[in-house]
């Protein structure tokens, strides 16, 4: 499972002091809790913890916050703050009679740059289950409109059958600045329409995620007015039976070492960068044979002439050029 590879920043733990703060001794009256550095803080979120409340400060794992939304209000720009979201058992194959069966059911907008949102879970888990809440599945679990945000360790599920897992949005003008995001070690299941949506986002890194049957797209650019993503890296992801694995007008991006499983082999359902330019697409494993007919490399994938597709692997050998 991708979540087994989570490597979230581990802070130093400030233990409860045996004595109160000493007058004139710097640091001895610092509030207890978990710190990454002199200012960074970890805020714990656990809706299953007994007596959990958003009225707490969230820095103590035995006094966690109820919601990620509240934790975000406590984060400061570029302080190294981490929101640690604790595991829950709300998974289709889990024994929910054991308790801890309340998932994350939120749709949050990340406006604080430099924040990490991390799911903490057993190593064999697909990640901490996170569900949309908007009726008819039209919601988005996490919308990133700030720079330098990390998200990892979650299993995004369509609580109302549909919606989007993560959206990264840059529009400038003092509104949205979703650049430089890192999304890694996450799972997107078949109840999600679009796993990750990128809107004019630069320098986004999408690494080691599983897109398991996303109804519409694994990775997608959905805007008809804003340009597509650019200078991104999409690597080491697995796409299984998605409507389309990668359908985004990437520019100047590096798309490599992804694996796609698809039994339908519909036109354009593989990697489609046709509306972009100057991408390096290499060493991806594709489920189609070489050729240009229906269900073959030249139809399953699509690319502009300016792309450089090198050593991608079809079922009967490596490719030698763009589809």
Structural summary, described in words:
It comes from viral metagenome. One of its GO terms (molecular function) is lyase activity. This is Putative pectate lyase. Pfam families: NosD. Keywords: Lyase. The protein has about 325 residues and is mainly beta. It has two domains: about 40-220, no CATH class; about 250-323, no CATH class. Helices cover about 5% and strands about 30% of the residues. The protein contains two helices and 29 strands. The chain has helices at about 70-75, 295-300, and strands spanning about 10-15, 35, 40-45, 80-85, 105, 110, 115-120, 130, 140-145, 150, 155, 165-170, 175, 180-185, 185-190, 195-200, 205, 210, 215-220, 235, 240, 245, 255, 260, 270, 280, 310, 315, 315-320. Strands 3-4-7-10-14-17-20-23-26-27 form a ten-stranded parallel beta sheet, covered by helices on one side. Strands 6, 9, 12, 13, 16, 19, 22 and 25 form an eight-stranded mixed beta sheet that branches. Strands 5-8-11-15-18-21-24 form a seven-stranded parallel beta sheet, with no helix packed on it. Strand 26, helix 2 (about 295-300) and strand 27 (about 310) form a beta-alpha-beta unit. The longest helix is centred in the first third of the chain and has 7 residues, at about 70-75. The protein is globular, with a radius of gyration of 21 Å. Residues about 10-20 and about 25-35 have low confidence and may be disordered.
